Amino acid sequence: MEINNIKSQKEQLIVQNVSHSFGFSDILKDISFTLEKGKVTSIVGPSGGGKTTLLHLCAKLLTLETGKIKNSFTSSSFAFQEARLLPWKNVLDNISLGLKAKGIKKEKREEEAKAIALKFGLEEDDFYKFPKDLSGGMKQRVSFARALVINPSLLFLDEPFSALDIGLKKELQTLLIKQIEEKQLSVLFITHDLMEAIKLSDEILVLKAEPVGHIIKKFSFDLPKIQRDNKFVYEQTAKLLSDETIINTFELELK
Ligand SMILES: Nc1ncnc2c1ncn2[C@@H]1O[C@H](COP(=O)(O)OP(=O)(O)OP(=O)(O)O)[C@@H](O)[C@H]1O
Description:
The protein is α/β, with parallel strands linked by helices. Helix content is 38%, strand content 24%. The chain folds into 2 domains: 1-75 and 153-255, P-loop containing nucleotide triphosphate hydrolases (Rossmann fold), CATH 3.40.50; 83-151.
């Protein structure tokens, strides 16, 4: 038991002095932060600031050129703004892709995929539908179920809520918070949405694009996510939006 505790404490993502360029364009400069087990770190900033590039470097979807990234989490998965489902596979088969890759038998795969599909608000009638017959919201439910069915210790999220209506956004955020609390899930989360970041994060890194993407400020929040009501989110948002660095980063106009 104790050995497990020691092992789990060591799970972290350490990003040290990471810079990145595409050709002659410098995109990121000297980025450093650490994501601990059970924590959520959000990267917020204006469009084009290099948020997705940073996430891709952390997830090894891009080759690291400068700096160090050490990921000691035991497993990871992804969910993106678009659900990216395989069009030739039905809902259950899409959800259980990661289980298949782990060598889990078909019967067990289906059982686990069905359980998580129901948890994420899909219905039995949806199980054998193909992506072309699903709404955008249903596709995103499948995408979340697929990412979480393998019980990852680290989840990479790139604006997964941005195309959803407000009700579904809230529902999926609540389900995600539950997973974070129950399973000590860690999340690296990209968003444009400051309120969303305040609701979900332990730490927010603000990325400024000019002249090259760099972290201009870090904010931490201690209140348990489950206790963050609208009042907390609005108050914290107002506080952050009155910070001069945030005003400059987002080029907000004060009237
Ligand atoms: N594969 C690539 N090759 C060349 N340039 C790229 C590539 N990927 C991204 N870029 C450029 O890098 C910059 C940062 O892009 P990135 O997608 O990381 O920003 P972002 O902050 O995630 O933006 P958004 O919020 O709009 O998604 C942009 O100018 C983009 O055009």
